[in-house]
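Many introductory courses stop at the sequence. We go one step further.
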Amino acid sequence: MCLSIPGKVIAIEGNIAKTSIGGTIIDAGLQLVDNVKVGDYILVHTGFAIQKIDEQEAIEQLHILDELKSNEIY
């Protein structure tokens, strides 16, 4: 099973996006996604952006992850 995390692009340097995920800044390669701009939301998996998503979808996915975190299933 693969997990990708939504992040907001806060800066772009060459083909690397500086992405805010839960307040942590993560670098994500942009080689797999076209037309990414500052302010866009992307799905980040193993250090690469794999898809652009809209803000509402990103918020919904982050909400689900927060719910899972609060349940702390072991």
